[in-house]
From TrEMBL, chain A:
Pfam families in alphabetical order: Response_reg, Trans_reg_C
A Gene Ontology cellular-component term: protein-DNA complex
Residues covered by the OmpR/PhoB-type domain: 128-227
Keywords: DNA-binding, Phosphoprotein, Transcription, Transcription regulation, Two-component regulatory system
Annotated GO MF terms: phosphorelay response regulator activity; transcription cis-regulatory region binding
GO biological process per UniProt: regulation of DNA-templated transcription
Organism: Promicromonospora thailandica
Domain of life: Bacteria
DNA-binding region ranges: 128-227
Full protein name: DNA-binding response regulator, OmpR family, contains REC and winged-helix (WHTH) domain
List of residues that carry 4-aspartylphosphate: D52
From TrEMBL, chain B:
Extent of Acidic residues compositional bias: 462-471
Sequence intervals crossing the membrane: 157-176
Enzyme Commission number(s) of this protein: 2.7.13.3
GO function terms (MF aspect): phosphorelay sensor kinase activity
UniProt keyword Mitochondrion present: no
Disulfide bond recorded as keyword: no
Subcellular location: Cell membrane
Domain Histidine kinase: 245-454
Domain (HAMP) ranges: 178-230
Catalytic activity annotation: ATP + protein L-histidine = ADP + protein N-phospho-L-histidine
Lineage: Bacteria, Bacillati, Actinomycetota, Actinomycetes, Micrococcales
Name listed for the protein in its UniProt record: histidine kinase
Region of interest (Disordered), residue spans: 432-471
Database matches in Pfam families: HAMP, HATPase_c, HisKA
Length: 228, 471
């Protein structure tokens, strides 16, 4: 039973999807506007936010930025437009994943579970509880990251991405591999998710995100973890 | 262009001077010759009556003396000559004088300079007025040195004139070329700008010549172009907005339906068989409606030019295998000799291949084989089934039309009728195509052919990587 906050202005979608997700075992709170959604989120923090981008009043991007600014709760966007710009803007606003409407409730459920699984300790945790690179320390069992002794707030997606990349230092991981291991998407997933995730991760762990030393881009292939 | 102007000016100035010189020279020579002939004729006319006939040597000498220093007079065997230039009187000239009644003139030149040799018979006028040849021939050598000196002076004048006129002509040419060519250059520059898409470019007209007319025409054309392109862009933007709006308006209720019907069907499972059957049917039809809407929207997006290509470096064999695997098509075989690396939009290739395979499974007969083949510049994905082949007597191209039904007997329950149209638009977005034909082994074969490195569309993947520091 996970607490889901559904922010969706269309009444039928809100009720229909809310009910269906309830049948899948989620505890769904629904909001009809961005403002209401933010209020609900403050009152009882959700474990995951399902956010429609086209909202009257405060739009989904702004809601996304505000939720992201306040914490690390995973956000899955519901996009209705076929416009690719929506997806990019949503990812830049801090969303972890997205589904395109119309989508069947079981697909949404699967996506929600995949996102929430990212917060679970990695299978490789036993291999070494903690690893340090400079002043950055990753505790694989506790699923925490500290930098210079201070905890770094990470979304489950960022944390899982760091775990996957750091599990095989020096090895190049393709975007497709990362999509499958972190996002649990099929090979057809949107590689922009990976690029966006890497950018956000760099912003949190790299001393200078513009000149990354921990996560290297390997042109045409993917990413490689390894302090240089 | 300026050089050409200058060259033309130079040639013109030189040619004009040279032509003037040649004409003047010809007329001077003519005049000199005419005067010499006149003089001799006057002398002969005046002296002839004073001479007794037939003349003796003394009479000939007298006649010769009055003609001038270089002269010769002959009468049958007698000759009276003086001067050093008489060798110039040729036999040819003498023959001509003997033959004709008129003047024979010959121009000769030797080391001493050019000379004019004149010869004429002396004619006698009888009391009855008739004229007859007296048998006396007169020859006079006229020195042309004076004329030649005159010509030399002229030549100098002409050369000086050309020397003086040339710089003037060049300067004039430069001025003209600037006033004519500069506006032409500006026009050409503006036309280039216009062609590059700066539709706001205009020229300031000056003067009232043909060039000014041309500038006005250019401005009108640019304005008309700007108007129609603006209109076109406005409509395009409108179309895009419409597609986006329709997309939202259509997807939202379908999304609601999809969710609600799934709940209803779950509830119906506990009730009568009829309820369950109806609910299941509703779920199925909702899915089909969703798919039709998606296909329509996809096509509208492509038509509105919203569809952009996001090419990535991939192994097409891997993509095709994934397409078949994720759709759960266990009995579809993928055949490839090895990896086929290419730069394609994975999502679109998946869509096209899924369409072709889905089509083959619905309309053809198993086994369906997907073959991926590399050509130097292309990647070819062939989907072959073992059914009856393409519908007989149908143009394969018609299959790619919208809502085309390859088999008229087919019920409307499968597919949206847009699949192949979408496949083709997606292939063409890559700069490739999809074609259909009968396979030699029976069955139908649909072939997707894509360039391995599409030149259209920006390198988005690479652009993205440029944001990071390269490894």
């Amino acid at each position: 039973m996970s607490r889901i906050l559904l922010i969706e202005d269309d009444h039928a979608v809100r009720v229909g999807l809310g009910t269906a997700l309830g049948r899948y075992g989620h505890d769904v709170a629904a909001a009809a506007s961005g403002e209401e959604g933010l209020r609900l989120h403050r009152e009882h923090a959700a474990e995951l936010v399902l956010l429609d981008l086209m909202l009257p009043g405060m739009d989904g991007f702004e809601v996304c930025r505000r939720i992201r600014g306040a914490g690390t709760v995973p956000i899955v966007m519901l996009t209705a437009r076929g416009d690719d710009v929506d997806v990019v803007s949503g990812l830049e606003a801090g969303a972890d994943d997205y589904v395109v409407k119309p989508v069947e409730p079981r697909v949404v459920d699967a996506r929600i579970r995949a996102v929430l699984r990212r917060a679970a300790p990695a299978a490789s945790a036993a291999a070494g509880r903690t690893t340090a690179w400079g002043d950055l320390v990753l505790d694989r069992a506790a699923m925490t990251v500290t930098r210079a002794g201070r905890p770094v707030a990470m979304t489950p997606t960022e944390l899982r991405l760091l775990l996957e990349l750091s599990a095989s230092p020096g090895q190049v991981l393709s975007r497709q591999q990362l999509l499958e291991s972190v996002w649990e998407h099929s090979y057809l997933g949107d590689s922009r998710l990976v690029d966006n995730g890497v950018q956000r991760l760099r912003a949190k762990i790299e001393p200078d995100p513009a000149r990354p030393v921990l996560i290297q881009t390997v042109r045409g292939f993917g990413y490689r973890f390894g302090p240089v | 262009m300026v050089l050409a102007f200058v060259a033309v000016a130079m040639v013109t100035a030189t040619a004009a001077s040279a032509a003037g010189y040649a004409a003047a020279r010809a007329s001077l020579v003519e005049e000199t010759q005419r005067r010499a002939v006149e003089t001799v004729r006057d002398q002969v006319t005046r002296l002839a009556p004073e001479t007794a006939y037939p003349p003796d040597q003394q009479a000939l000498d007298r006649l010769r003396t009055s003609l001038g220093p270089d002269a010769m007079v002959t009468f049958e065997g007698l000759t009276s000559a003086s001067g050093s230039t008489l060798g110039l009187i040729t036999d040819d000239l003498r023959a001509r004088v003997a033959r004709d009644d008129g003047f024979a003139v010959q121009r000769v030149a030797d080391d001493a300079g050019p000379r004019l040799v004149l010869g004429t018979p002396v004619l006698l006028t009888d009391v009855d007025g008739s004229r007859r040849d007296s048998g006396v021939d007169v020859y006079v050598v006229h020195d042309l040195a004076g004329t030649e000196a005159q010509l030399d002076r002229w030549t100098r004048v002409v050369v000086l004139t050309i020397a003086g006129a040339l710089p003037l002509a060049v300067a004039l040419a430069l001025v003209v070329s600037r006033s004519v060519l500069r506006p032409v250059q500006r026009l050409a520059h503006s036309a280039t700008e216009l062609a590059e898409g700066n539709l706001g470019v205009r020229l300031t007209p000056s003067g009232r010549d043909e060039l000014a007319d041309l500038v006005a025409t250019f401005n009108d054309t640019a304005a008309a172009l700007e108007r129609s392109v603006g209109e076109l862009r406005r409509r395009e933007a409108e179309a895009r907005r419409f597609v986006a709006d329709v997309s939202h308006e259509l997807r939202t209720p379908i999304m609601a339906l999809t969710s609600i019907i799934e709940v209803l069907r779950a509830d119906a499972a506990g009730r009568s068989d009829q309820d369950l059957e109806l609910a299941t049917m509703a779920v199925d039809r909702t899915r089909r409606l969703a798919r039709l809407a998606e296909d329509l929207l996809e096509l509208s997006r492509l038509d509105a030019g919203v569809g952009d290509l996001r090419p990535e470096h991939v192994d097409v064999v891997h993509v095709v295998t994934g397409t078949v695997r994720t759709r759960g098509w266990a009995d579809v075989a993928v055949a490839a000799a090895g990896p086929v690396p290419a730069r394609v939009d994975v999502r679109r290739v998946d869509l096209v291949v899924a369409n072709l395979v889905g089509n083959a499974l619905r309309h053809g007969a198993p086994p369906v084989v997907v073959e991926v083949r590399a050509e130097p510049d292309h990647v070819v994905v062939g989907v072959t089934d073992h059914g009856p082949g393409l519908p007989a007597g149908t143009d394969p191209e018609l299959l790619f039309g919208r809502f085309a039904k390859g088999d008229p007997s087919r019920t409307s329950s499968d597919g949206s009728g847009l699949g192949l149209a979408i496949a083709r638009v997606n292939a063409r977005l890559h700069g490739g195509d999809v074609t259909a034909h009968d396979d030699p082994g029976g069955g139908a074969r649909f072939e997707l052919r894509l360039p391995r490195r599409p030149e259209v569309s920006a390198d988005r993947e690479d652009d993205r990587e440029d944001d990071d520091a390269p490894a």
